[in-house]
Recover the amino acids of this structure.
């Protein structure tokens, strides 16, 4: 029975441990009284380079290694973790976690199979895919490029992050899972100044690849995008206020879909009746145009998982089909309690956290309409192409989102940039007001993160151009 050599050397060898000891530690908490138990080991290395005021301020390197031991009985979870992987810590964690399984006979765990999962990303450490000297040069090149391109550039801030994660999971069925997860990200912020007015622009990208993902062409495209957004904001007028048609651009604007709708389709919210979609399975909840999926099986995407943090392969889960609610995103706990199939959405931030139902790459599928036709259909409204952030209340579905880049639509044409636009509405109502859907499905550039119950995980979003027939816009009348 073979375990990936890198996984064994990183997670087990430093403490002189072996697979037999892992099995023995899980046996100590397993009994006939429990429904599930698993041992999750993780090693994580993150390197971040920052540039500000044309100076590379240095590199931060974080290394973390530890394990979490979980026991589940009914709806109750016993959990203990430690920031080191050794026999003494495993036994102590088992003693703390097993109180949930106080009754019943202890069982033996035999490692029956090393599960091979189709990998969606290369098993590399992205930190070592580029020399430190080259990383510094990259940042300096982007900074010089932006400052040379427009004299109004007052400040450039850059952030380059590489992450290497190795995980190993053993469950009470004796199945052994492992995954090697690379991640890279580049963020660019540009501040411009003209006639005493300062405005910002932002762009970024990322993937589960090495640093060679950021080719020269991509680096400078991202720089151009950030600068264009900042310069647009210099010319922006105050956003109008009122109820009007809103057109959302393709790609990243699906963050509104993620927040206002996606969280309500995570099965723990459904099970606890804290979602607007509770008790609506099989019901019409959206326009006929809307088909929404969560897909953790897309190669190299930030939100993708070769396996989730319970050892279940990432997959494409149909949530809403032609307006009808047909499914939810499950971890093992919610799937068992709701008598449904797990969907590969059991995710945790680290070994110190329990898995929860979480989104991966959530998207609305494409329609058949030319985006130009959608814009032409609007007499007076706004076109939102980028968002800075927002707030949503999962139980009610009410949301408020701030657009970081938006434009007026006047008589079927995109005209002036606007500033200060906020979109205010209800996720369920917005779905019903989708009246046109473009044929231009796009995914976000790879910048998404999602927070839930104190845990943050990388995610992706996507959509085509979407017309919402009526939505409240906050701005200035």
């Amino acid at each position: 029975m073979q375990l990936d050599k890198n996984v064994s050397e990183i997670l087990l060898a430093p403490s002189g441990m072996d697979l037999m000891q892992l099995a023995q530690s899980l046996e100590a908490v397993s009994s006939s009284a429990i429904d599930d138990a698993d041992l999750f080991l993780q090693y994580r290395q993150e390197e971040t380079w920052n540039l500000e005021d044309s100076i590379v301020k240095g590199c931060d390197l974080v290394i973390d290694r530890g394990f979490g031991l979980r026991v589940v009985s009914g709806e109750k979870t016993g959990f203990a973790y430690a920031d080191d992987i050794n026999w003494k810590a495993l036994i102590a964690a088992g003693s703390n976690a097993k109180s949930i399984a106080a009754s019943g006979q202890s069982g033996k765990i035999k490692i029956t199979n090393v599960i091979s999962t189709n990998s969606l990303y290369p098993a590399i450490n992205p930190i070592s895919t580029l020399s430190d000297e080259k990383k510094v040069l990259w940042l300096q090149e982007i900074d010089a490029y932006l400052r040379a391109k427009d004299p109004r550039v007052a400040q450039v801030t850059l952030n380059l992050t590489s992450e290497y994660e190795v995980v190993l999971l053993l469950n009470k069925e004796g199945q052994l899972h492992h995954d090697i997860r690379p991640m890279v990200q580049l963020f660019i912020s540009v501040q411009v100044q003209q006639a005493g007015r300062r405005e910002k622009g932002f762009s970024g990208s990322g993937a589960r690849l090495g640093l060679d993902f950021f080719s020269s062409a991509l680096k400078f495209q991202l720089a151009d995008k950030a600068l264009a957004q900042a310069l647009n904001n210099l010319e922006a007028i105050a956003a109008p206020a009122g109820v009007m048609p809103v057109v959302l651009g393709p790609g990243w604007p699906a963050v509104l879909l993620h927040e206002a709708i996606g969280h309500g389709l995570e099965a723990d919210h459904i099970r606890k009746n804290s979602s607007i979609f509770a008790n609506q399975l099989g019901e019409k909840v959206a326009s006929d145009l809307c088909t929404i999926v969560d897909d953790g099986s897309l190669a190299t995407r930030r939100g993708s998982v070769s396996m989730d943090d319970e050892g279940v392969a990432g997959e494409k889960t149909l949530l809403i089909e032609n307006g009808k609610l047909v499914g939810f995103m499950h971890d093992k706990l919610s799937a068992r309690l709701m008598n449904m199939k797990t969907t590969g959405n059991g995710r945790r931030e680290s070994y110190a956290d329990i898995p929860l139902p979480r989104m991966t790459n959530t998207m609305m599928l494409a329609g058949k309409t030319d985006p130009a036709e959608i814009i032409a259909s609007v007499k007076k409204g706004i076109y939102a192409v980028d968002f800075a952030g927002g707030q949503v209340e999962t139980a009610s579905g009410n949301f408020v989102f701030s657009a970081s880049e938006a434009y007026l639509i006047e008589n079927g044409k995109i005209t002036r940039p606007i500033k200060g636009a906020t979109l205010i509405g209800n996720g369920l109502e917005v779905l019903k007001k989708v009246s046109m859907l473009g044929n231009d499905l796009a995914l976000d550039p790879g910048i998404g993160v999602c927070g839930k119950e104190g845990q943050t995980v990388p995610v992706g979003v996507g959509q085509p151009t979407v017309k919402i027939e009526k939505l409240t816009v906050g701005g200035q009348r």
In short: The chain has two domains: 5-235, 242-474. DSSP finds ten helices and 25 strands in the chain.
